[in-house]
Design goal:
With 276 residues, this protein is an alpha/beta fold. The chain has a single domain, classed as Rossmann fold (3-Layer(aba) Sandwich), CATH 3.40.50. 42% of the residues lie in helices and 13% in strands. The protein has eight helices and seven strands, in the order βαβαβαβαβαβαααβ. A seven-stranded parallel sheet has the order 3-2-1-4-5-6-7, with helices on both faces. Helix 2 links the parallel strand 2 and strand 3.
C-alpha cells in the first residue's frame, strides 16, 4: 500500500501576518509549512524580506510589504498588496506591537499622556486599523468551501488578565492588551453572521526581541522558571505558532469569540515575585 502525502491544514489559504520577528516569524513559518500562502507586513522592510526569503527557501510561499501599521493609508496599501499578490485573505494573525517602556510606560501615576498615546498607538491602534481593512476585504469575498469568509486571530498578553505588579508594571501596555480582548469579543459577535471568525491568543513571557529586559533580569528569570513550569523558563516563539495554525485553519471552524492562553502554566500557577 502506497502512502499519500497529507495536505497541510492551511493548504492554499492566504494568511496575512503582521510583524516579522519573534512570534510573528515563527507563526508565519509554520503557517507556510502547513500550506498557507503567507503575506508579511511590518515596519521593517529588512525583517519582512528576510522572513519571506527563509519561508521561500524552505519551500513555502510568501510575499511582503513594509508598512507603519499605525498609519491608515499604509495599512490599506499593505492589505491591497496582499490581495493583489494572492487574490483574497483567508486568515489574519495580528501580532505587531511592542513594549511601551521606551515611551515611558510604567505605573499609571508616572505615565505621561505622550507615553500612553504612543503605547496605545503601537499595540492597539495598529491591530484595530489592520482589522478594519481586513474585514472590509473579507466581507466582499466569496466564502470558501467550508462557508467561511475568513478567520482573525489577535495577539494579546497574559498580563491583561494575570498581572505581576512587582515585575511588569506597564499599565498602558496591559490596558492596550485588555482592549484587544474587548475588540475580539465584540468583533466576533458582530461578524459571526457574516461567517467571519475572531479569536485571540494570549502568550505569557516569550523569548523574543521585546523580552530583552526580562532576559537580563535574574529576578524575572527566577520568577518565570516557577511561573511557567511547563517549559521551565521563557516560552519559545514556536510554542505559540501552533495556536495560530489552529485558529486560522478549518479545524476551528466552529470557534469564535474565544481566548486561547498559551502560557506554560502562568495563569494557574501560584508563584510570588521577588521584588526588584
Amino acid at each position: 500500500m502506497t502512502a499519500t502525502a497529507r495536505p497541510g491544514r492551511l493548504e492554499g489559504r492566504v494568511c496575512l501576518v503582521t510583524g516579522s520577528t519573534g512570534i510573528a516569524a515563527a507563526s508565519a513559518a509554520l503557517l507556510a509549512a502547513e500550506g498557507g500562502r503567507v503575506f508579511i507586513t511590518s515596519r521593517s522592510a529588512d525583517h519582512c524580506a528576510s522572513l519571506a526569503e527563509r519561508i521561500s527557501a524552505d519551500g513555502g510561499t510568501a510575499a511582503w510589504q513594509a508598512a507603519d501599521l499605525a498609519v491608515p493609508d499604509e495599512v490599506a496599501a499593505a492589505i491591497d498588496a496582499c490581495v493583489d499578490a494572492f487574490g483574497r485573505i483567508d486568515g489574519l494573525l495580528s501580532v505587531a506591537g511592542g513594549s511601551g517602556r521606551p515611551f515611558g510606560d510604567g505605573p499609571i501615576h508616572l505615565v505621561t499622556a505622550e507615553a500612553w498615546e504612543a503605547t496605545m498607538r503601537l499595540n492597539l491602534t495598529t491591530q484595530a486599523l489592520v482589522c478594519r481593512e481586513v474585514v472590509r476585504r473579507m466581507l466582499d469575498q466569496d466564502p470558501d468551501e467550508t462557508g467561511s469568509r475568513g478567520s482573525i486571530a489577535l495577539v494579546t498578553s497574559v498580563l491583561a488578565t494575570h498581572p505581576v505588579a512587582e515585575l511588569f508594571a506597564t499599565h498602558a501596555y496591559a490596558a492596550a492588551k485588555g482592549a484587544i480582548l474587548s475588540l475580539m469579543t465584540t468583533m466576533a459577535a458582530y461578524y459571526a453572521g457574516h461567517r467571519i471568525r475572531v479569536n485571540a491568543i494570549a502568550p505569557s513571557l516569550v523569548e523574543t526581541p521585546m523580552s530583552a529586559r526580562a532576559k537580563d533580569s535574574p529576578a524575572i528569570l527566577k520568577f518565570v522558571t516557577r511561573k511557567q513550569p511547563l517549559v521551565g523558563g521563557m516560552l519559545a516563539p514556536e510554542d505559540i505558532a501552533p495556536a495560530a495554525v489552529y485558529l486560522l485553519s478549518p479545524e476551528s471552524r466552529a470557534v469564535t469569540g474565544q481566548l486561547l492562553t498559551v502560557d506554560g502554566g502562568w495563569s494557574v500557577v501560584s508563584a510570588s515575585a521577588d521584588r526588584p
